[in-house]
Amino acid sequence: MPFSGLKASPLRLTGALALVVVLALTGVLVARREPHQARAADDGLRHTTVEVSAGHCGRGWTEPASGVQVFDLHNTSSDAAEAYLENPVSKAVYGEVEDIGPGTTRALTVRLGKGAYAFKCVPDDADAVTGPTIRLSTGHSGPAAAPVTEHDLIPPALAYQKWIGGGLSEVVRLTTGMRDAIDRGDLAGARTAWLPAHLEYERLGAAYDAFGDADGEINGTDAGLPDGVRDKDFAGFHRVEYGLWHGRSAAALKAPASALVKAVTALRDSWARTRMDPAQLGLRAHEILENTVQFELTGRTDYGSGSNLATARANLDGTREVLSRLHPLLATRYADLPALERQLDRAQDTLDGFRRSGAWTPLDRLSRTQREDVDAVFGDLVERLASVATLFDPRRTV
Questions:
Q1: Fewer CB atoms near the end CB (10 Å): N or C, the chain?
Q2: CA atoms in the 13 A half-sphere facing the CB of 349
Q3: What domains are defined for the chain?
């Protein structure tokens, strides 16, 4: 994604968001840097060393100037800390750095213009401290995003959780139909029923973390299993898929199909007692398509059905569902939302082009140009959704 001459580093979010956030003119970009990767002073940008501590938050910024510049945030305290550059009145955030270790320095790159700014230092296990206000009278700043609290995320999380409950009921219905076909010895019918059942489950991607061990029983792979696809612990949709597309008999598939129905039914029945973490909703919106790129678009989860592109399409639906719940908050915080929505449409159109008369083109039958097109559109989406994940990472304000 272009950024007025600056470029965000590639990003993979796999846990806590230990990030440097860059807010650009075209939207919010995210760059991930380790402490030793702060930009050197010969990068052509203006550098200012700023202290991060409870006693001297923001000290060192004595010569404010408009334009793109780098703040080298140095934590002088004995504990890890976060630091935000914000508007001291509205609390809108221009940039942030998390997990600055004691005695270490992390770089924050921002574009500053006319307005008021202050650093907020948030040490671990201590109250937040706001530094002195700095005012600039010229220039145009990058966009600022109002911080999101966990309270803001509770309503969309509850709405999404209710939607998941309905989706699980549909998964149970479709999976039961597939099992019944196997029980009748109708393997052709079971192959036809397998894909809709699996896709319905794949649309629930943002809830996988809340599913716990059940997800492995329902949608696990043979990765790490000593005997691979023949391992006794290989179970769920992909276990049934392997059997259906590798000549296994209906008798051999009855047990794994029955176990799958039992697992999805148990998950549906327990879902009303489960509570999703509202703070994870934005992160999950990013992780759905990150996992799509990692597993579906590489073919690592194809056990014979050739349905990776169909699964990617279901994952796209799941991402849209999460974003629809977050839309009221996104609309006032994410300047690049229209571009994100256009890119979602582009991804949908691209994938839909590989479906003919209800059948999906297997991944290995795409031309090189087609593969490059798919990879490009999903790579761009993953980058944009990383910004969404960062926006919805609740920040401590006190």
A1: C
A2: 8
A3: 20-136 (2.60.40), 150-391 (1.20.1420.20)
